[in-house]
Amino acid sequence: MSAPATCRWGILSTGWIAGMFVKDLLVDPETRGVRDIKHEVVAIGSRSVESAQQFVNQWWPDVDSNAHKRIKRHGSYAELFRDQAVDCIYIGTPHSHHFDTAYAALQAGKNVLVEKPMTVNAKQAETLVRLAREKGVFLASALWTRCLPSTLKLQEVLASGAIGEIRGVTSEFSIDATGLVNRDPGHRMVNPELAGGALLDLGPYSYTQLALVLAPHGRTSYDKLPEISSSMVKTSTRVDASTTATLHFEQSDGRIVAGTMTSAIDRHTPPERCVLISGSLGYITIHSPANNPRSFTVKRYGDSHRFWTHETEHDATTYNFGMPGGIFGFAYEADEVARCMRDGKTESELLPLDETVYQMKIFDEIRRQNRLEYPAPIESFDVSSL
Length: 386
Ligand SMILES: NC(=O)C1=CN([C@@H]2O[C@H](COP(=O)(O)OP(=O)(O)OC[C@H]3O[C@@H](n4cnc5c(N)ncnc54)[C@H](OP(=O)(O)O)[C@@H]3O)[C@@H](O)[C@H]2O)C=CC1
Ligand SMILES: O=C1OC[C@@H](O)[C@H](O)[C@H]1O
Description:
Layout: E1 5-12, H1 16-25, E2 37-45, H2 49-59, H3 66-70, E3 72-74, H4 77-82, E4 88-91, H5 98-107, E5 111-114, H6 122-135, E6 139-141, H7 149-159, E7 166-174, H8 180-183, H9 198-214, E8 227-234, E9 240-250, E10 256-264, E11 275-279, E12 282-286, E13 295-301, E14 313-320, H10 330-343, H11 353-369, H12 376-379
Parallel strand pairs: 1-2, 1-4, 2-3, 4-5, 5-6, 7-10
Antiparallel strand pairs: 7-11, 8-9, 9-10, 11-12, 12-13, 13-14
Helix pairs in contact: 5-6, 6-11
The structure holds NADPH dihydro-nicotinamide-adenine-dinucleotide phosphate and the ligand O=C1OC[C@@H](O)[C@H](O)[C@H]1O.
């Protein structure tokens, strides 16, 4: 077997998720049975060099180690874009800053993995996708759930016909952040200036869980949006505390199947169930959380199943997934990106760009229906000043 290919990462921003992503990159891929690629963090880019230095101190505390000494600390994002040692830049800024930062990185010819949601709106996402394709560089939104072994296994189970014809999906990813509005109204989750709110922050997961079943890539035409009915409750900071949307997706056999997604920042999703996939022969329950499911259960109805009884289900199978090496789960998307780098691919089949743009169009429509607008500068897709 040939030597593993190394992906050399540049980390842009030094907040919470940037640290979690790095933590996963530092775990030896062999612990999860991955022998074809390796990860190396070669540079940190921050708005201040002190913050970049602090980040290195936190994640590579051994000051005498080669890694600690070797990692470049850039005091501006522009310096990171110029760093020739970097293969791919991971962007972990707030939503409001995904578009401008990713645009500048792509413009500099860099491969980019940008946190979810890719942008604030679909026009911005389309602009990034167009630029990446023009430049021939890699781009993906970091919807890590799509790369998890549990997600891939679920696709297999569905394709096997285990629950028959799909009749409906409900999906929720919510986190109780009540109190944040009063305690810390500037926090990115509730601050409109940073494009906060449940839909953009947590909706990518509740949407993805139903889209993987009802609008899978390769079997969905992105020309037409599903029919959408949605509602929102807003916070006093004027972002959405909760959003629920029912989407009617046309299936390849012409049937219309409804999926309902909920994301909220004012409650927890209960652990037992975040996603319910109902089929003609049974159902699948995905256990919370929807961003990182560790198990799901498939139950098939018994032959004597009747609509008035609940006693006849049988054949329950639960699939469990660990997180080897102590990873959080981001490592799997990092592996996928590293393989794309190695193979010269500019797009990942697990994180398809057209699907990402489609999702952003659906979110635009949900926001339109509920009059959720962000400040003009962060909705802008004008690139003349970038
Ligand atoms: N995949 C996942 O599971 C998760 C994804 N996320 C996503 O990651 C992104 C960041 O979230 P999180 O890490 O929690 O956020 P943090 O606030 O902890 O970090 C954001 C970082 O972005 C940089 N930044 C650039 N401009 C600004 C600005 N105007 N205000 C604040 N920070 C700025 C800062 O880094 P610096 O000072 O170094 O420039 C800052 O540390 C979001 O898009 C979120 O949706 C978040 C959590 C989990
Ligand atoms: O996975 C996540 O969990 C917590 C959220 O605030 C975050 O943005 C999201 O990506």
